Amino acid sequence: MSERETINGTPVTEEQIAAWAIEAEAGYDVAALKKRGRGRPGRGAEPSQVIALRLTADEIAALDSRAEREGKSRSEVIREALASA
Q1: Which residues pair with 2 in a beta bridge?
Q2: N or C: which end of the chain has fewer CB within 10 A?
Q3: pLDDT category, 1, cuts 50, 70, 90?
């Protein structure tokens, strides 16, 4: 390797590359890899969509106060408010 490759700042050695190659050649358990998943867990059967929402500083303060008081996230408080509307 002409340039030192790194992962999270740690140099990748030729030995590590060889070990990864052996692991890949042996094959992976695809079902286990899919089960692990990536990102945040889903909220239901259908994909969620992220939306932008503009709030004033006072609205954000009220939202954060309620979320902290109830031990919830901002998103949970907003979803509950929408569900009760």
Answers
A1: none
A2: C
A3: very low
Residue range 15-59, pLDDT digits in tens:
888 888 888 888 888 777 777 666 666 677 777 788 888 999 999
CB 63, CB 74: distance < 8 Å: yes
Q: Are 24 and 18 in contact (CB under 8 A)?
A: no
The secondary structure of the chain, three-state, reads CCCCCEECCEECCHHHHHHHHHHHHHCCCHHHHHHHCCCCCCCCCCCCCCCCCCCCHHHHHHHHHHHHHHCCCHHHHHHHHHHHC
Contact 77, 67 (CB under 8 A): yes
Distance CA 45, CA 35 (A): 15
Nearest 5 degrees, angle CA 74-CA 50-CA 78? 30
7: CB partners within 8 A, 6+ apart: none
